[in-house]
Specification:
The structure holds two protein chains of two kinds.
Chain A: H1 3-16, H2 18-54, E1 60-65, E2 69-70, E3 73-74, H3 85-91, E4 100-114, E5 119-127, H4 130-134, E6 139-142, H5 147-151, E7 156-159, H6 161-167, E8 174-177, E9 180-188, E10 202-206, H7 207-214, E11 223-228, H8 234-248, E12 259-263, H9 264-307, H10 309-317, H11 322-358, H12 367-394, H13 397-402
Parallel strand pairs in A: 5-10, 7-9
Antiparallel strand pairs in A: 1-11, 1-12, 2-3, 4-5, 4-8, 4-11, 6-9, 7-10, 8-9
Chain B: E1 13-22, E2 29-39, E3 44-48, H1 55-62, E4 70-75, E5 78-79, H2 85-94, E6 96-99, H3 111-120, H4 127-137, H5 153-165, E7 171-175, H6 183-198, E8 202-206, H7 212-215, E9 218-223, E10 226-232
Parallel strand pairs in B: 3-8, 3-9, 6-7, 7-8
Antiparallel strand pairs in B: 1-2, 1-4, 4-5, 9-10
Classes of the chains: A alpha+beta, B alpha/beta.
Bound molecules: adenosine-5'-triphosphate and magnesium ion.
Chain lengths: 404, 233
Amino acid sequence: MSILQTIETGLRSLLGHRLRSVLTTLGILFGVAAVIATVGIGQASSDSVTARITSLGTNLLTVSPGSTVFGGVFGGGASANSLTMRDVAGLSDRQNAPDISAVAPVSQGRVSLVSTSSNWSTTLSGSTPDWLIANARSMSSGTFITSADVSTSAQVIVLGATTASNLGAGVGDLITVKQIPFQVIGILASTGSQGFGNQDDLAVVPLTTAQDELIGGVGTVQRILLSATSSANLGTAYAEANQILLQTHGITNPSQADFSITSQTQVLSTAQAVTQTLTILLASVAAISLLVGGIGVMNIMLVSVTERTSEIGLRKALGATPGDLFRQFVIEAGALTAVGGLLGVATGLAAGYIVPRTANIAVTITPAPIAIAVAVAVVVGLVFGVYPALRAARLAPIEALRAQ
Amino acid sequence: MSVGVAPEQEPLIRLESISKLYGSGDAQVAALRNFSLRVAQGELLAVMGPSGSGKSTLMNILGCLDSPTSGRYWFAGEDVSRLSETQLAHVRNRRIGFVFQQFQLLPKLSAWRNVELPLLYRNASDRRSLAVHALETVGLGNRIEHRPTQLSGGQQQRVAIARALVTDPDLILADEPTGNLDTAASREVLAVLRDLNQGGRTVIVITHDPEVAPIARRTVHVRDGQLVQQKAA
Ligand SMILES: Nc1ncnc2c1ncn2[C@@H]1O[C@H](COP(=O)(O)OP(=O)(O)OP(=O)(O)O)[C@@H](O)[C@H]1O
Ligand SMILES: [Mg+2]
């Protein structure tokens, strides 16, 4: 039989068994699409957590009050006022802390900002010029808070990109916070982060201004951000900060420290471990859906070949050679898996386009899962479409014909 | 082969001591025992015998659809047991037309597509016209697009005959072609087979039908897997 003739025979037979063909195609389609979508979601969440944490600055150490674990009891935020400006002064001493390049005390609160055109509630931080360095941020326009602003409790404010656009405010505009007018002196460059913990939705004022007029807590700070001179020096910077704070707090036993120092690398590695687990979980779900799809395809193929054993016998009786039958079944199974695989990829890509726009779930499509899913589908389809057919084709024609 | 074959020349079919065993141990059945038979080119042979005597087994071996447990089968001078799967497929395709007792038509295909099937395996170019011509030969020129389910039993059997003759084979084997048909339909089918034989083909028919015997030149009787009697017409 000529190859063109074989293709025509194979396709005609698929059209003749429409339901069977559609079911097989659907099995492959959903298996492939599920793998692409689930791995895409896992990839996207892993990427976004990593990006968000690296955008926080990798040289960053954060000193928080309390939060010590002592004798199995978590200290919590009990001693909330344990960090003071004395600590800030101590940490800023380059003699004792040569590996710390920036010290930024932060007092934070949620406030409502009012511009001439709208209002917007956001996270307001009172801090010092070092905030910019510690957070590894830069300005897109205007200037950041200066030491002079801090010492004079100036009524100036720096806005994140999202905050500025929501307020419709630019450099030089006046906005009010708790009825106090502030002049916008700068807009921060965007980090591109989104959603919860958006690094572009914030406002910064001089620490003294925040303590005196907006958040309160004169003399104490909620957190101190430290920047190591380089990420390689993060360890020594940590040790120096720990030593200085133990000293200023008069604590001799380090396990009784009333403060804690965390680094972004710790957070990053924890988060990466979490997202890796998440990715493995999603990949297992995908692998299971591929397996289920594969078993579905296998079943339909096996049933259809068994069903068609007498057809195989008849074709043999009429002169089909083993090669003719092999080629016909390869073409049938190949066409089904190709169509199912392509539609599956299309569905997966469509899900990757639609899901982020409707369900607010990010999806990152990468080539590897597409290739693996399609390869598995094709192999399963071909093996279970062709192998049983070949076995049937090896029977004497009359035995195959009798099988019902 | 030329017309006017001398009797001592190689016959189209030569069976020598064919046996066919089914199953094993106590359940073993000898469907054919030590069966020898010669059929010359151009004969019309009727095979008769009681149910279970081994007629279909004989026909399947003659049609190269099954292989004997022992004994030799020469078809047109060739030892069939020496042929490969592919060569056997070619013999079945080019030289033998088989009419099954149960029609064996593919239900999804129209009459002419069913008749076309053997032509697919020999790269014929004008398949549709050959198939239509074969259907006209059996009187079904007006049913070419019908599915088997849309045809009567006799019409289905004639589609099966058209499929057997479309390749212009040397040998037509018909296993109880009239078994499922009423008298009128049987006559039509037998007439077609006789015409084919008169056109020069060798035809072997299994039958219970005493009406077949008169049209056959020779009738063989099978009992318990053995040849019991040969009667020349
Ligand atoms: N596939 C098989 N497996 C086991 N035994 C078989 C098989 N085919 C046939 N037989 C046995 O071989 C014997 C001959 O069977 P066969 O079909 O040749 O009979 P038959 O003469 O065609 O009968 P009928 O006129 O009823 O069609 C029977 O006893 C039958 O039981
Ligand atoms: Mg029989």
